[in-house]
């Protein structure tokens, strides 16, 4: 979705859901790149947001992997 989740929300998610979220975010990032390549970039602000979200999900996944929860 277009709503940016917070790190807190991500921490409340299961590892399984976080991995799905990561796939969705990567897919969105890919689609944004394709649009940019086609020369139409209506959602330039989404680029930074998606990148931040990906970093955030990865961070939370790493935390969860460390604690083993």
Feature tags:
69 residues; mainly alpha; 3 helices; elongated
Describe the structure.
With 69 residues, this protein is mostly helical. Helix content is 75%, strand content 0%. The chain is elongated.
Helical residues, percent: over 70%
| Dominant shape | elongated
Largest sheet: none
Alpha carbon gap, first and last residue: 26 Å
**Which blocks of ≥5 consecutive residues have pLDDT under 50?**
none
Q: What structural class do helix, strand and pairing data support? A: mainly alpha
Q: Strand portion, in percent?
A: under 5%
Number of helices: 3
State the gist of this model:
It contains three helices and no strands. By secondary structure, it is mostly helical. The longest helix has 24 residues, at 44-67.
What order do the helices and strands come in, and which of them pair?
Blueprint: H1 7-11, H2 15-37, H3 44-67
Helix pairs in contact: 2-3
């Amino acid at each position: 979705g277009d709503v940016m989740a917070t790190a807190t929300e991500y921490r409340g998610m299961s590892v399984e859901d976080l991995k799905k979220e990561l796939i969705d975010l990567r897919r969105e990032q890919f689609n944004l790149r394709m649009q940019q390549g086609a020369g139409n970039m209506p959602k330039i602000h989404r680029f930074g947001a998606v990148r931040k979200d990906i970093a955030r999900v990865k961070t939370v996944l790493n935390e969860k992997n460390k604690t083993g929860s």
